[in-house]
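cron nightly-structures :: item 1 of 1
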Amino acid sequence: MSFEKAASIEVAPEHAGFRSDRALCALVPAITRRAAKSLFHAGAVRLNGKVARGSERVEAGDRFEFPDPGEPEGKAVIDQAKAPRLATSHGRQVARLYEDDDILVLNKPAEIPIHRNQDGLTRRETLEDVLEKAYPPRADAAWLREAPRGDGEDSDDEDGEPVPAPSKGDVPGFFFCHRLDMETTGCLLVAKNPVARDKLIRDFEARRIGKQYLAIACGDVPWEKKVVTAAIKYVRKNADEARREQAPPRARRGVPDWVRRKRTGKPQRNLKVGVPLEPGDPAGKACETGFSVLKRYKGFTLLKCEPKTGRMHQIRVHLSGEGFPLAYDQIYGRRSPLRMREFDLFTSEKESGEEVVLNRLPLHAWKLAFTHPTTGERMEFEAPPPRDLKEFMRLLRKFRGR
């Protein structure tokens, strides 16, 4: 970490023998114990010119160097270090890309729904649960009004459902401005007060927020760039279709939908599904997605996707409609996981050939650009691809490279 604008302070005699993290907290009131732990872990504190460990003991006259709380950059680093820990009850971390008093940008992990009951998933811990622990509802102001959830990829609320008001009239500590599918990873924008929420939602509606996704599609895409404007109509499976896909009641009892889908490769029951129509068809919702080829492999293509609108499943429906669905997509494409034997022929008769190399949507919210709702500054963030997608791309380079 850069120390160009670092502050420094000398250890007083009364703090001799302290752990370095406790000494720094005693010397600098702006740094809390939580912040100190995070700063030492990130290597942002030096002791006598060397990167310090929080557990080492200090002596009188030792000198700390640390981010200057009087400088905007240093204050931002310390404020982020002070922020409460974001983790599921099982210890899975949710990384922050940025945070201040008004907004929060998260790097969403896979397999965590954003909202309770999103896509009918009621038995999973959600990102909403995680954030409520860190940012509980506030009772210091009245609930202003109900507002739409926002607009973003996989986030369009066709039914116009409002966000339910919290109980007891408390104001929530956070507001989701858009949504991602449970299996989609990457940049997620969250507002921390109603004013920021309203401005960001208006920016989403006015298409002033830039979104870029990474997607791995099946097939050899014949074009380098293409803009798809197919309208999307949403339908639900009828009762007979849903009933045929259901397992026997005893086998299904107590098993969440997401587990059943992974085991059987069947889509969720009574699911809303997008159907691509002709551009401008009044039976569907207007959509626009720009696609650019980043890398070609034998049988697969890595694409950059830029949705201009924010309809549910927009990227997935448009790719499927073009004949190049995502490499794994239980609704619009392949339903069975990809295994090692499909890439490395030497493992076809071995146990290692059964290793699953992809069993979720290869879709990642890569970049997000927006105007800060308070300062007016244009901000851009990039979420690095998660480990499983990077490993799958490494596999493609090794066995399917051109």
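cron nightly-structures :: done
Residues 248 and 376 are 56 Å apart (CA to CA).
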